[in-house]
Amino acid sequence: EPLVEMRDIVKKYGDTVVLQGVDLEVDRGEVVVLIGPSGAGKSTLLRCINGLERIQSGTIRFAGEELVYQEKHLNQIRSRIGMVFQSFNLFPHLKVIDNLMMAQVDVLGRSKEEARERAERLLERVGLPDKADAYPDKLSGGQQQRVAIARALAMDPEVMLFDEPTSALDPELVGEVLQVMRTLADDGMTMVVVTHEMRFARRAADRVVLMADSGIAEQGTPEQVLEHP
Ligand code: ADP
Ligand code: ADP
Questions:
Q1: What span, in angstroms and rounded, lies between the C-alpha atoms of 219 and 33?
Q2: φ, ψ of residue 76 in degrees (nearest 5)
Q3: I want to staple 150 with a disulfide (CB 3.0 to 4.6 A). Which of 22, 45, 108, 122 is the partner?
Q4: pLDDT tens by residue, 17-75
């Protein structure tokens, strides 16, 4: 079964229809990149996956389990889904290491030693082994976003959702974040990524989904969707 399965999704804000009858499936290990013009509903679709947005009709299943808008259930589903936003959203008063440890201890109930070990391993993985004791505001935007990715990974998510993760970065810092995402994709992580970085889409995506006019206009391999004659 698909890890994420969305059927006939309708999402409105007031009278404005943002998603109209959208179907999307994401298999385990698949990297799906959502592209399309601003306002097409990419971010909304992404946020529906973990129940950050409530849909008006349709069904969403995560690992076969239907999403219901009930706090306990949503928390349980969200604990299995990692999300990275455009703004890095680190806790400014906590050192990098504590940013990475906190939810591991508080939500997953890991021991501090275990959480620290996992945090240190992930900092190495995102190329920041020497930043454990730094505060977020001492880091570049690219470094902060890599910490945010590490923090999400620390929870051992089954899927990672990225909502324009490089859009707030200075151009020279975009590559280091995409590189981390690329490695993650190569390592088999299931990912759904909203981005305008076509080079990333071309190289990292198993499937590119083009959104327009409240729905999916086209989807296929990067070659099929991006290399029009
Ligand atoms: P994209 O990510 O493709 O740029 P969004 O999903 O952010 O598109 O937005 C889709 C549409 O929904 C836009 O027209 C946007 O103005 C509208 N929208 C998004 N969030 C809200 C909200 N909280 N309230 C009202 N309208 C919203
Ligand atoms: P490559 O060796 O693949 O041509 P680089 O060495 O320039 O690419 O960057 C390393 C990886 O980071 C690349 O595989 C690429 O996917 C990603 N990357 C770096 N910068 C960008 C960018 N501006 N847009 C998309 N992907 C990028």
A1: 10
A2: -65, -45
A3: 122
A4: 999 999 999 999 999 999 999 999 999 999 999 999 999 999 999 999 999 999 999 99
**C-alpha dihedral sign at 124, 137, 176, 103:** positive
Give the C-alpha separation, 87 to 2, whole Å. Answer: 29
Compute, in angstroms, the gap from residue 41 CA to the centroid of ligand 1.
6
Nearest CA to ligand 1 atom 5: 41
Q: Is the pLDDT of residue 227 over 90?
A: no
Supply the Cα-derived Rg of the chain in whole angstroms.
18
CA of residue 29 to ligand 2 center, whole Å? 21
Q: What is the mean pLDDT of the chain?
A: 97
Q: Where are the alpha helices (DSSP H) in 50-94?
A: 71-78
Q: Is the ipTM of this complex over 0.85?
A: no
Residue that the structure tokens 């959480």 belong to: 115
Distance CA 106, CA 198 (A): 38
Q: What is the pTM of this model?
A: 0.92
Q: How far is the CA of 5 from the centre of ligand 1 (A)?
A: 21
Model confidence at 229, pLDDT cuts 50, 70, 90, reads: low
Q: How far apart are CA 193 and CA 165, in angstroms?
A: 8
Using the atom order of ligand 2, give the atom closest to the CA of residue 171.
Answer: 23
C-alpha to C-alpha distance for 164 and 194, rounded to whole angstroms: 5
